[in-house]
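---------- Forwarded message ----------

FYI, see the NADH-quinone oxidoreductase subunit H record below. Original note from H. follows.
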Amino acid sequence: MNDVLDVALRLIVVFAVFLVLPLVIGQTEHKVMAHMQGRLGPMYAGGFHGWAQLVADGVKFAQKEDVVPAGADRRIFQLAPAVALLPYLLVLVAIPVGPSEGAVGQVIDAGLFFVLAVMGVGVLGSVMAGWASANKFSLLGGLRTAAQLLAYELPMLLAAASVAMAAGTVSLPGIVGAFEWWWLPWQITGALVFFTAGLAELQRPPFDMPVADSEIIFGAYTEYTGLRFALFLLAEYAGIVVLCALTTVLFLGGWHGPFGGGWGWTLLKTAVLAFVVIWLRVSYPRLREDQLQKLAWTVLIPLALAQIALTGIVKVAIQ
């Protein structure tokens, strides 16, 4: 009975984090972009520093009419937001925040395989939305999403494989437990490849070609309104949390810190990486589609393969 209560409590905590952290990231993005771009609008709602901006956005989405196009495939159209969002909840269950067993929703022996496989499913929500909307711009956005997934899934997997080779395990707590600070300089290439490919899979700027508003209105999400559109936004911010947390666990030592260790280090590193994601959106223009594909196939994949070769050499040298 105690084991059941323990698992239930941990799952409740994960669910609460899933509901809170993406909203915090969304609120932070409003404020950081407003400061970087000199925009005053997001600083008014609610008074001090625009603290109620997130509440105002939520009320706005709830009040909007839920519209389904007449020619759309209704079931797939309505299912797509859930397919985009729920995989990130499952990934959070497997990410360890601290060294204790209670600091992870569920310990999975092959946790790295699990989280990478499930993250790939989340991208399919955009493909489903584009195909089911009965809109040529939405379909084009969905096709771009599929092309982006095919291009960036491989370097992401290869980069994760290099750190799994270094740790000798595919268990996420095992990878963090095996982490040594001298890994940082020779795994930095893998970390950059993993983080860049993850941004592309999330369709975050400068890799937001599937939602290029200047070309295809808003891509796969053009026909979505109200709370269904809000679920896609929540999935994007949940994806940021998952990507930053995974980068922290795989390449930055997770709960290890220069002064002791604990779950606070995991959250701090995740927050810093989330700020980097927001900063990149403000600072860099959108890539062209050919540049997007060229970066994946001619830069990231060779770098990831070189990182695997370097990891093998280092492992042999140590042995």
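H. also flagged this: The chain has eleven helices and no strands.
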